[in-house]
Specification:
2 copies of one chain form a homodimer. By secondary structure, the first copy, chain A, is of the alpha+beta class. The first copy, chain A, has helices at about 50-65, 85-100, 150-155, 160-165, 175-185, 195-205, 225-230, and strands spanning about 10, 20, 30-40, 70-80, 105-110, 115-125, 140-145, 185-190, 210, 235-240, 250, 250-260, 270, 275. In chain A, strands 7, 8, 9, 10, 11, 12, 13 and 14 form an 8-stranded mixed β-sheet that branches. In chain A, strands 1-2-3-6-4-5 form a 6-stranded mixed β-sheet, with helices on one face.
Chain lengths: ~290, ~290
């Protein structure tokens, strides 16, 4: 299905963390990402306070902007409010959004049976410089920020540092800027649905395979959680071989986890075995 | 609450049909509007087919772009899909969107209990030329396109031309372009929540009052439906006194309905009496 006509100012459509739009005559490309947050699917009323829910909605969008190396410009928030959510809840929901780095410029409010939120975040990068999923080449090194598995561990344990991490993820905006401007990463995306699934997506977009040798595992998390756990908000990126990558950037540790290979596109090996993508896919698990 | 910092590329935030963003160095301003469509609130599964629902979602957004005189550039669609909606329904929903004038460049899909859709449409106008709600001045003539009350009549009758109009509204994109470029309208908006409420909003934004003398009523609709019925997708606009306005533009009849006055901001008189705003407000009627 051809959604974007040739000659369109839409540089990149569906299939990456953000769409890319090139405004007429502008020095910037604009990035657009949209994320839904549905009660009972993406959050539970019992465990997520209003401000946790608002923050999570915002963080998901900001993380996509970070993954392309962008700076946030504005956001639009639509909210469907059920009877249980009073005006205090709604105010609490919007608090972290209004305090965030992307001015709230519009949205829509409705009542309804289930709390549902949709957020669009717009970011900007200098023209032609957005980090995409499709730029990795065989021989490139694969890196990841932070430690993996913490969000999945937190969701299971519902306490401690891992739970805090699950509830209050930090989008890697400063790191994304560093990857784009200083490291000139060849590809990048955020780990939102689990490393195994997201790395497969990066490989498919780049028409390559990958080999993973090691993983930075969150303290207390299992290898399974690190490989397949979603909602990490860490950045997965590739650089040309022998690029000098610092051990820490923007306050976040960086770990080399493997190499892009010329194997069958989308195939990933982990310590010599095939790594099946078990991350979260809404329409696989439905 | 100050949402948009001074010096921001956000020219206009919450409160009009669209937000306005000015990309660095661009010849265009970009318009953004977002609209939710919730099962049981904005549409009924029993009466709206999949493609009617998709069209309605798109039409709401396009109508906001039309109201500011914009040309559609792209759209983002998020969809929360309950168990009753199979893949055939989802394909039917997206059909009018993919065929529409705004390429679909991104979105999000989730499962959930209730069908909920959120659409963002981006449009463009030459820099500084967007039609806004706040430009009307006392003495300006008030005009409206088409006939009013048809959508409300259709919703009541569920048959005939009025029902067809309710199910398949036509956003006035070509007319909006004409109002901006040729007529140089001083203010414009679409009649989405009923003339009485929407005109009050235009008057409040423009710090003025209004006096209405006559209305173009849809064949078979009541005066009440024409005054207060929502989902009209017609354009309400103002022009400087004695502007030569054609009887028909872009195939749509235009009717002068009254005059902007220096009365208390937001106060509207209809044939000598106060016109209370009885249009649809989600959080008034909740």
């Amino acid at each position: 299905m051809k959604l974007v006509p040739p000659g369109s100012p839409v540089v990149l459509g569906i299939g990456d963390d953000c769409a890319i739009y090139r405004p007429r005559g502008s020095a910037d490309d604009l990035l657009f990402t949209t994320d839904m947050l549905i009660e009972g699917v993406h959050f539970e009323r019992a465990t997520h306070k209003a401000k946790d829910t608002g923050w999570k909605a915002l963080a998901r969008g900001l993380s996509d902007i970070a993954a392309m190396g962008g700076e946030p410009r504005f956001c639009l928030v639509s909210l469907c409010v059920p009877g249980w959510a009073d005006s205090k809840w709604v105010d609490g929901f919007f608090e972290p959004i209004v305090k965030g780095p992307a001015p709230l410029v519009g949205g829509d409010l409705s009542h309804g049976n289930t709390l549902a939120c949709d957020i669009v975040v717009c970011g900007a990068v200098p023209r032609g410089t957005a980090l995409r999923r499709d730029g990795a080449r065989p021989g490139d090194e694969i890196w990841v920020s932070g430690k993996l598995g913490g969000s999945a561990l937190g969701l299971e344990a519902k306490k401690g540092k891992a739970w805090k991490r699950h509830l209050h993820p930090e989008p890697r905006l400063e790191l994304g800027h560093f990857l784009r401007e200083k490291l000139r990463a060849t590809a990048a995306m955020d780990v939102s649905d689990g490393l195994s699934l997201d790395l497969q997506r990066l490989c498919l977009a780049s028409n390559a395979g990958a080999q993973i040798d090691q993983l930075p595992v969150f303290n207390g998390a299992s290898e399974e959680q690190a490989l397949h756990g979603g909602e990490e908000y860490e950045l997965l990126f590739t650089v040309r071989r022998a690029t000098p990558v610092p051990a820490v950037a923007a306050g976040v540790p960086l770990t080399k986890i493997g190499t892009i290979t010329p194997a069958v596109p989308g195939s990933v090996q982990y310590r010599g075995s095939v790594l099946e993508p078990h991350g979260y896919d809404h329409f696989q698990t439905k």
